[in-house]
Amino acid sequence: MSKLTDVPKRILIGRALRSDRLGETLLPKRIALPVFASDPLSSVAYAPGEVLLVLSIAGVSAYHFSPWIALAVVVLMFTVVASYRQNVHAYPSGGGDYEVATTNLGAKAGLTVASALLVDYVMTVAVSISSGIENLGSAIPFVVEHKVLCAVVVIVLLTVMNLRGVRESGTLFAIPTYVFVAGVFIMIIWGAFRGLALGDTMRAPTADYHIKAEHQGLAGFALVFLLLRAFSSGCAALTGVEAISNGVPAFRKPKSKNAATTLAMMGLLAVTMFCGIIVLAMTTKVHMAENPAADLLHNGNPLGSGYVQNPVISQVAEAVFGKGSFLFVVLAAATALVLFLAANTAYNGFPLLGSILAQDRYLPRQLHTRGDRLAFSNGIVLLAGAATLLVVVYGADSTRLIQLYIVGVFVSFTLSQIGMVRHWNRHLAAERDQAKRRHMIRSRAINAFGAFLTGLVLVVVLLTKFTHGAWVALLGMCIFFATMTAIRKHYDRVSEEIAAPEGPSDDLVRPSRIHSVVLISKIHRPTLRALAYAKLMRSDTLEALTVNVDPAETKALRAEWERRGIDVPLKVLDSPYREVTRPVIEYVKNLRKESPRDAVSVIIPEYVVGHWYEHLLHNQSALRLKGRLLFTPGVMVTSVPYQLASSEAAKVRARRRQDWSAPGAVRRGPAQVRKESSKEPKEPKESPASKG
Amino acid sequence: MSKLTDVPKRILIGRALRSDRLGETLLPKRIALPVFASDPLSSVAYAPGEVLLVLSIAGVSAYHFSPWIALAVVVLMFTVVASYRQNVHAYPSGGGDYEVATTNLGAKAGLTVASALLVDYVMTVAVSISSGIENLGSAIPFVVEHKVLCAVVVIVLLTVMNLRGVRESGTLFAIPTYVFVAGVFIMIIWGAFRGLALGDTMRAPTADYHIKAEHQGLAGFALVFLLLRAFSSGCAALTGVEAISNGVPAFRKPKSKNAATTLAMMGLLAVTMFCGIIVLAMTTKVHMAENPAADLLHNGNPLGSGYVQNPVISQVAEAVFGKGSFLFVVLAAATALVLFLAANTAYNGFPLLGSILAQDRYLPRQLHTRGDRLAFSNGIVLLAGAATLLVVVYGADSTRLIQLYIVGVFVSFTLSQIGMVRHWNRHLAAERDQAKRRHMIRSRAINAFGAFLTGLVLVVVLLTKFTHGAWVALLGMCIFFATMTAIRKHYDRVSEEIAAPEGPSDDLVRPSRIHSVVLISKIHRPTLRALAYAKLMRSDTLEALTVNVDPAETKALRAEWERRGIDVPLKVLDSPYREVTRPVIEYVKNLRKESPRDAVSVIIPEYVVGHWYEHLLHNQSALRLKGRLLFTPGVMVTSVPYQLASSEAAKVRARRRQDWSAPGAVRRGPAQVRKESSKEPKEPKESPASKG
Where is the major localization of this protein (chains A, B) (predicted)? Predict the structure, then answer.
């Protein structure tokens, strides 16, 4: 099946996969954690730094607020995790926030959540890759010197990888994620040991710098506002928490319980890492500024535009492990890798959400098909394009991109939690069992608090970040919302237009007779086959039709027709301008005019070829004619294909394309409960045919 | 028919034209001359200057060779005109050089000529527009300061105009061409009068400059080579002479005689203008250099890169009429306009030649259709793209572009004339009438001399211009040649593959039965219509097929099926991955496997929509399925269209597209001798059906 000539294609499009391609194994918790949590865990690589950056506006003295902000983030994280543990139990289907909002708050809320999530996926790619590049850059200077270029290259690589339909394995996610988590924990423990037991003074590379406060001695409302802004930035640590609630079907049984446990583990890990890094940053005196070129001073002089501010995690690692040490490099690499994996989760999530939205007819219906290559490709290219745009516009600067990030996350958090409150209210109204009721009331309380807190954060984020870029994210959400609403409206309108009436209607009067016309250009195998099939169809009348484009050819055709004794009458249409389409259309229209109750069946012999350039050389007239005929009422158009030898190539290609494995398969879990249906398609299962 | 919303489209694509759209009037000589001769006549705007430019390499003293070079060009012009007068009489069909070469020298020679002509059309656009911009620039400084931009803008304008299918009128060509010719003649006569009768000393703006010879005191072989190079450049005056031989069918009767007369008039005009301009340039002491910034000296100093060297025709006009005078501006404008018209002729010729080549299967067959919009559009866009590339690469510098120009022209001249000699030889062998024989022998002598001289010039051009850019033109010719050969090979291979065998063969065994399958997604008007049509077809078995993508929907479908009492069995295919294509393909393959002698007819209800974005929302699954089914042997695919209300828009659009008038109609003459067939298509003429 795979010839030598296929090699270049195979390199580009990926190897033909076997039919049992999803390889659906359910995930144990130890694998599910890295698969779903690479996004939230990786965000500790940039979130602590963002807090310090904002605080630096009020000068280094404001840094002492950072533990309090970390505490607020921890409280929020626990609240969100606790809330989503309720979601996971109540909605084990994996529909996630979109399902919760739609079910409980209605279609518009659901669509808002969906728009927010779509924007969020774009931001995940842009922020994670930019941050990954910055972390990689702390070990490899070249990368940070060509930030935008490197970020775009990584986006392109991820895109190609996902378009190829790379087969995910849990291990792929597990190793870098666990290396990253382990690295951060070793750093925290070793840092604590050095500081407390050995009494070492660990100093970050920026410890000697001074921060020129943009607003010295900030107090009162302004200070509160600044602290809220710092908190908003710290909330970046929460992005991706909802991922597990979308992935419940992929868990081993008991699915919901395992998912809830994984969620808790994830929350605990994230919080510990976040706080550990903040504390180490304070201890090692990391100094960061929003605008380091001007606001960071060394011996009283600004550092200038040549200075590259490394991420807080890398500065801390340098202080704890030593610059260029083995552990420092490993941690930098693992951080970058886990951030790229986080970006990759968006590549899975975006088309997956698209397919759910398509099911509800907010997006083109073909996206509905699970693992449809074309649909996934479109989604992936759209995602990659939007992310690239953002990366280029914002210069791959994670700090500036984060301003756009958190809005979408908290829109969906808040609406989802409000939805959950409604969910419990509804269930409480029906439930009589007191134990269950108590449980529900407890869940409702958790979700209500979650809704309150995330809603509050949303307001804070909007207030503090709107002018810093959050408006861009809101605009993106509006565009998604409007587009999806328009698509849904279109589908609804069409569905109304084509609704079958009860009883017979004018439109559906069954035509009384059928008049078949076979289009003939020359006598060759394709036309002979078309004639044979047409005869077999036993329509009421049958004729062959040719257009006289070249009188000599037409004469030859007619002679051969008679010589071969073909028992179908041949009609010749004149065409002074050597056109094909117009005379045929006019003729068919005329047939319809003469006997309006007859339907006309136009049978077109077609070549099936294997390469795109061969398409340019064949069937163009047939295609155009078909296109025009479809607009003519009362006409049906039949293609009788003739497979040329070269069509084999396309067949192999098509088969391979169909055996393609959609990215994100691991996260999605098996297609249906009936396991046997995921095996190699054999005899299709047939339902008993119903008789009318 | 034309609604208000159509206005923007109408502006862009052009107004819907009536069906008798070619407006075929035969051309009288006075109109035919400007229509066909704008290209050769306009070349006198740049050819004399090119001669001076090359001579200037040997210093101003070499200028005294220019009358001799002009004389050589005149001799060549008369030879070529005399030769083509023979072509016109011998081949009145308008096939031009391609036909002459193919008929007499074989397919490869014909294809070489065709490749040369295609390259030539590209060069005509590039050179004429660049030169037009330079002439316009002599009156409007802005234009010459933004040469490349202006040239590209003109190309874009011409392209849009031709894509719109502008209706040509002879007048459009006649006015500027006659104004240009009249202007040049007035200039020559007025110049002669001022110089000879009034004794005025007319001085060109560059009369006071000195030329720094790159090679002072050139002699012997080097001088001869330089003179030959100058002559080659002067040969640019001959480009476009063959146009009339392509246009014989457009002439009034007696076609050949009128065409021959027009050819002679054109030659006479061109030669007089060419010589007049050379003489005036010598009289007014025009000084030009290939590299004016360095080699033109004013008071001993180079003029520097800011200096813009105006074309010789504009310098002479300035000397004769005075800078900024009315006649000077009119002549500059008319020169630019006639050059743009010359470029426009390539826009007509390129797709026209394409259609002839398509007839011989060297190009995709659909180009064969006369005035097929799509085919013309592709040709026009290809031409414009190539010309734009050349203009940008060569900085819209007509002098540099001309180096590429003349190769193609002389390749086709030479091959055509050799072909004509063969033509006469063949006819002489058969002809017995002595008077006719004498005539033929005379014609053969003319063509033989033409072949000799143009062949000599071709060698000279190749020798003197190869490194200056002629290799680019040759490369272009090779690319066209190779592509067309490959296309022809492909068509030949396919035609062999599909040739109908005499007598029955395995391949054509008529299938014994037909099994029809109607694809159903839901019950609505389109599916009900498809079912009704399918029943009417009376195939041997008929069933409805649905894919169980969503169990709830499938259940509802089955219930409604029974409720409505549809008397066709409904089969349900399972699809665990919500795929549509694969289960259907597998099912059809299985049907074929079970009874290999049966054919399967798959009937697909299809929506017909009006806008491209609606296509994205509908039929995608159907389209993909159709694409795959065509690769399955023994299957025929029938579309039963259902026209949605929005399809009206597309219908109107399609009709308008068909009523489009192809550019170049005037030059091409009527389609067929039978005049009545060009009228509004009424009842199509039917030939008596032949019975086998």
Answer: membrane
